[in-house]
Design brief:
Layout (H helix, E strand, L loop, with lengths): L19 H13 L6 H4 L4 E5 L2 E4 L4 E4 L2 H4 L8 H11 L11 H13 L8 E6 L2 H16 L3 E5 L17 H7 L6 E4 L16 H14 L8 E6 L15 H11 L4 E4 L23 E4 L10 E6 L19 H16 L2 H22 L3 E7 L2 E6 L9 H13 L2 E2 L1 E3 L5 E4 L7 H21 L1
Parallel strand pairs: 3-13, 5-6, 5-7, 7-8, 8-9
Antiparallel strand pairs: 1-2, 2-3, 4-10, 9-10, 11-12, 12-15, 14-15
Helix pairs in contact: 4-10, 5-10, 8-9, 12-13
Cofactor: pyridoxal 5'-phosphate
Family: Belongs to the class-III pyridoxal-phosphate-dependent aminotransferase family.
Keywords: Aminotransferase, Pyridoxal phosphate, Transferase
Length: 454
């Protein structure tokens, strides 16, 4: 953490945002590209280049990146080890279907050596293309090995928006866009203590959820049907950066083992160091049966996969899950560099310690600003939920206004949550302290400003 990766000073605002060059490029984009884009609405700027936790636009403005492409750049932009691996691999081969390459074997060996619990050095890996594709493959595998159909997921979940997996994503409008049925997927409440739908003591929230799961598994009249797998995020991402009680995942693991139901853990957003461990499952000492991996594993290049128990690989038919661009060699070379950096540096220890300090600083701001209902998180995965009043009324307009105000002041920070009212900190793990300090100052100033205006 000694070498600076970001631009020396940030934010640096030279023009209004967007500046004239950005405006022209955004207009040209709108003439050529679909109008369904959303991020150009949130962050209307054209990018020149990026370093570490900073982004420079086409007008010379330098922004602090607390966005990281939604946890795709855990090591930041243009990390030297990742760039070196990419450059070296490009000179060798950039695409081949399934045949072994040095990049493929080295990545597989490195990945399997990092896996949580009993999967470590004792798993099989199936490559996919995107995060949604990994989740799709995971539920297909669970259904194949169990010869059952129903998947249990959780309210607020996000596992992708195409194919059958869209049914596991909690927000129903994605299913409506796709025009597909839920494919025998049943949702239980996630143990979201701040907004749990059943009035119970906070310490009982996880037990209520797991007891509900056990009821669906053991009672043939529950109406759910034979369960092929339970799909869960160890910390919910798009649902609102919701950290479950510490006993939730261990109890979930216990019940799924009891009834021989595969536990599928979606580590797409929580993995690759985001919570201060390579995999968030490690925080709870559980072993998934199937684990979904994507986002930061490719260092910015699309790649995804599932890792699963060896015995699940028996009797799988050839070509069980296909995709032309699975396991791109350049992405795998980058992925190995990412994992080696996490394994061989003090970065994870830094994220664990600094994440606690950062969370406390958000909590200090919350003590002075009543519109912050709750601060929660682990490592560099921190959510700040905004509300209108003491009744916890969600404040999505406030969150949207705060995102815009911070952007104008030079910080990219995005929203999430059941009601789009949660600000989420997901900066690169390598972010320098001055960029954290500057970002926190802008966060507080911007929040005070928009609360006065709304």
């Amino acid at each position: 953490m000694n070498k600076r990766l970001s631009y020396q000073e940030a934010p640096v605002i030279k023009t209004e945002l967007p500046g004239p060059v950005s405006k022209a490029m955004l207009e040209k984009q709108s003439q050529l590209e679909t109008s369904t884009r959303i991020y150009t609405e949130y962050f209307p700027v054209a990018i020149s280049d990026a370093r570490g936790s900073t982004i420079k636009d086409m007008d010379g403005n330098i922004l602090i990146d607390w966005f990281a492409g939604i946890c795709v750049l855990n090591l930041g932009h243009a990390h030297p080890a990742v760039l070196k691996a990419i450059r070296e691999q490009i000179e060798k081969i950039v695409h081949i279907n399934e045949l072994p390459t040095e990049a493929r074997i080295e990545f597989l060996e490195t990945l399997v050596s990092t896996l949580p619990g009993e999967l470590q050095n004792n798993a099989r890996v199936m490559f996919t293309v995107t995060g949604a594709d990994a989740c799709e493959a995971a539920i297909s595998l669970a259904r194949f090995v169990t010869k059952k159909k129903t998947i249990i997921a959780f309210g607020g979940a996000y596992h992708g928006v195409h194919g059958a997996i869209v049914g596991a994503t909690g927000n129903i409008h994605y299913r409506e866009y796709a025009g597909v049925p839920p494919y025998e997927i049943y949702h239980l409440p996630y143990p979201y203590t701040y907004r749990f739908p059943i009035k119970v003591k906070e310490e009982d929230v996880a037990k209520v959820v797991v007891d509900s799961l056990e009821y669906t598994l053991k009672d043939p009249y529950s109406g759910v049907g034979p369960v092929a797998g339970v799909l869960v995020e160890p910390i919910q991402g798009e649902g609102g950066y919701i950290v479950p009680p510490d006993d939730f995942l261990p109890m979930l693991r216990e019940v799924t083992e009891k009834y021989s139901v595969p536990l599928i853990v979606d580590e797409i957003q929580t993995g690759v160091g985001r919570t201060g461990r390579i995999w968030a499952s490690e925080n709870y000492s559980i072993t998934p049966d199937i684990m979904c991996v994507s986002k930061s594993i490719g260092g910015g290049i699309p790649v995804s996969m599932i890792a699963y128990r060896k015995e699940y690989d028996q009797n799988l038919p050839k070509a069980f899950h296909l995709g032309t661009y699975r396991a791109n060699p350049v992405a795998l070379a980058a992925g190995r560099a990412v994992l080696e950096e996490l394994k061989n540096s003090d970065l994870l220890e830094h994220v664990r310690a600094n994440g606690e300090t950062l969370k406390k600083r958000f909590e200090e701001i919350a003590m002075a600003i009543p519109e912050i209902g709750e601060v929660r998180g682990k490592g560099y995965m921190i959510g700040v939920e905004l509300v209108k009043d003491q009744n916890k009324t969600p404040a999505p307009e406030l969150a949207s206004a705060l995102r815009s105000e911070m952007f104008q002041k030079g910080v990219l920070m995005h929203t999430c949550g059941h009601y789009s009212n949660v600000m989420r900190f997901m900066a690169p793990l390598t972010i320098e302290q001055d960029l954290l300090d500057n970002g926190l100052r802008i966060f507080e100033q911007s929040l005070r400003r928009v609360t006065r205006k709304l």
